[in-house]
Design goal:
Elements: E1 3-6, H1 12-23, E2 27-32, H2 39-48, E3 52-56, H3 62-73, E4 81-84, H4 99-127, E5 130-135, H5 148-168, E6 173-180, H6 201-212, H7 219-231, E7 238-241, H8 245-253, H9 257-265, H10 268-279
Parallel strand pairs: 1-2, 1-4, 2-3, 4-5, 5-6, 6-7
Helix pairs in contact: 1-7, 3-4, 4-5
Length: 284
């Protein structure tokens, strides 16, 4: 039986990924910060008789990551697949967002991936087998306000994943980056800023996300892609997921850096009109 460790499984993409792997016959180690709050998840595991065990892990903590993985290795020799999914999102203008939020996003979305990868990689390298799947985002290619801090963490994750893939391929360890677009998760539904901002971008992108989510893309679509990568022998590095992922990436690539800055710097009326013209979305 193949084994998989998945981080951030309390909700959204992580939860769906754990269930998808469980239904595919994997032994799943589902990790999260607060297992005591996973009663519905535990009921689903029991009702479907899935081989999923829930473990406490905070990817922000070296000790928590190492303790969790050491305890798993006490009873299981190998973990075949690592899915680094745990992530948080903080949004706001660079000027107005607290420094603590910048630290938190980078600690979870970037350093958290490194902690889990470094804990499992020696075993994969020794066995000359394994698959590491990092959940990045379209924001790993596109940086715009009010998602500057989040985009910075995902750009960093893209870069370190690319370097990691080069290092571990001689040891037959595969690395893949999954890049979801706008997915119907709690995170995507909360792209708004409480109170007033001197910058208009927060309100604009809240409207863009709301308009996109009127025809929602479920997190199960991402979960199915993660399982597909695990089951295949592909060495393809990047995997955009969702109907808007590749169009968004291509749209940004079609502009010069200066055109991209100018597009985001226009007044509200011009911005809303361009979104409606280019994407057919009423973000007002």
């Amino acid at each position: 039986m193949k084994t998989v460790l998945i981080t951030g499984t309390s909700k959204g993409i992580g939860l769906e990924t754990a269930l998808t792997f469980g239904r595919a016959g994997y032994k799943v180690f589902a990790t999260m910060r607060n297992p005591e709050n996973a009663s519905e998840f535990k009921q689903k595991i029991a009702s479907e008789s899935l081989d999923i065990s829930i473990h406490k892990m905070d990817v922000d903590s070296d000790a928590s990551v190492n303790n969790c993985i050491d305890s798993i290795f006490d009873t299981h020799e190998n973990i075949d697949v690592l899915v680094n999914n745990a992530g948080i999102e903080r949004h706001g203008s660079i000027e107005e967002m607290p420094m603590d939020d910048f630290h938190s996003v980078m600690n979870t979305n970037y350093l958290g991936v490194l902690r889990c990868t470094k804990a499992l990689l020696p075993q994969m390298r020794k066995n000359k087998a394994g698959c590491i799947i990092n959940i990045a985002s379209v924001a790993g290619h596109i940086s715009n306000s009010p998602l500057g801090a989040y985009a910075a963490s995902k750009h960093a994750l893209e870069a370190i994943s690319e370097a990691l893939a080069q290092e571990v391929k001689p040891f037959n360890v595969r690395v893949a980056i999954v890049e979801p677009g706008i997915i119907n998760t709690e995170m995507a539904n909360n792209i708004s800023v409480d109170g007033e901002s001197i910058y208009p971008h927060s309100k604009r992108f809240s409207g863009l996300f709301s308009a996109s989510l009127k025809t929602p893309t479920p997190p199960s679509l991402v979960a199915n892609k993660i399982l597909e990568i695990s089951e295949s022998n592909t060495w393809k590095l990047r995997h955009p997921v969702g109907p808007d992922a590749e169009p968004f990436i291509a749209w940004r690539a079609s502009m010069s850096d200066e055109e991209w800055v100018d597009w985001n710097a226009v007044n509200d009326e011009e911005w809303y009109n361009s979104v409606e013209r280019d994407f057919g979305l009423n973000a007002r």
